[in-house]
Every structure is written in structure tokens, then in C-alpha cells.
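From the shared-data thread, chain only:
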Amino acid sequence: MSISATNPAPHPMLKLTNLNVSYGQSLVIRDISFSVQENEILAVMGRNGMGKTTLFKTIMGLLPAQSGRIELQGKDITRERTHRRVSTGLAYVPQGRMIFSHLSVLENLQAATNSATPQSAFDEMYALFPVLHEMRSRKGGNLSGGQQQQLAIARALLTNPKVLVLDEPTEGIQPSIIKEIARTLRKIRDFRKLTILVSEQVLSFVADACDRILVIQRGAIIHEEPVGDMKDSAVRKLLAI
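Structure, as C-alpha cells:
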């Protein structure tokens, strides 16, 4: 009798298990567990001070986990240094964007690459974000907030990540650019087969860009649902708690 081999279930692209993070004696992230699948765009929503940025910094290794586990494609990265996480496939656009204001757009992009990076990689970013090509010689500090955000995302994409982590990408950006960034994120996901994790408070952006939402309150998940099932009024109440 022959025994047929079964294919193991694929690992989630990013998986957090029972993650706890503290500032001193204060527990900020409380036993959080969730997974993000390949090609999925997941929004983590919550009011300011609820733990979103702390969670993202811990995923990137900028803050230590007190306990729990972080996995990227099944590999435990919980104790890896930030640069090792980046080389493994994580890219981070922090709140405030953190571009180099004294460098040109092109120089900002080059800062994420090396001499072996082909021109086609830059051309791809210019195709995704045409304004960056128009302003490639302009200093980053002279760009609008929306243009700086596009630059920060393009710079992160040049590291060829498997998971793109965005912290409050719509902060300080006008509504028309918010819709443009939402469309571009879906285009990036579809073209690159990329997984995207985003913290956000703007419901219209989440509805346009994301597949699923988590709502956190005081460092714990209190709600989860597909964006297609999301009712604005119910989610607004959760964000107001």
C-alpha cells in the first residue's frame, strides 16, 4: 500500500504569539496574537496611546519583547537585531516618515540601495510614484507631507521586503493624497505579492486599502473582522472607547 505525501500548510508571512511588551513596570502590549498572510493588507486600528507604535517597534526589533514570539515565514525573529530583521524581509516606514530632509529625493532612494542596484529598481519606484521622478532633484525637506510619505514608502520598497510595516501613513496628509496612497498600496501588493501591515485611524483609508482590521485598546486586541464586513458606525464606537 502506498502512502501519499501531504503538503504542509504554508506558514503565515508574519505571526505574533502571546506577545507582551513593557515600558519599565508598565505592560503596554498585552498577550497579543495574530497572523498576517501572504499578499494580505492588515490594518491595526486604535486611538493614540493604545499601543500601535509600540507594537510595530517591537516587530522591527526597536523595542524588546518581554515574552512571546515573532515569526517571519515560520522563522523565529523575536531576538534578532533590527538589521537582521530587515535583511530577512521586513521594511519599516515609521510615524513621521524619517526621510533625510537635507538629501534630494534621488539621494534618499539611493540610501536604501547599493552600487549593484539596477536603474530598473528606481524606474519602478518612479512608475509607482510619478511625483518622485518629477522632484528627484528636490531636497526631501522641501516636499509636502504626502510627497514625503511616498518617498518613505518607495525607499522601504527598494530593500525588496516580504513584509512592509507602515506606522500611521496618513498622518498630516490631505484627503486626495490619502486616497492615492491607498490605491498605490493595493497596486504594490498585487504587483509584488507583498504583505503589508499598517497602523491607522482613518477609516476611509482602511476601507480603500486593507483586507482585514484589528482594533486594539490598551495594548490588547478587542475586535477583528474583514474590511468587507466593516460597519463604520460600529468601528467608530470601538475607536472612541
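Confidence is low (pLDDT under 50) at residues 1-5.
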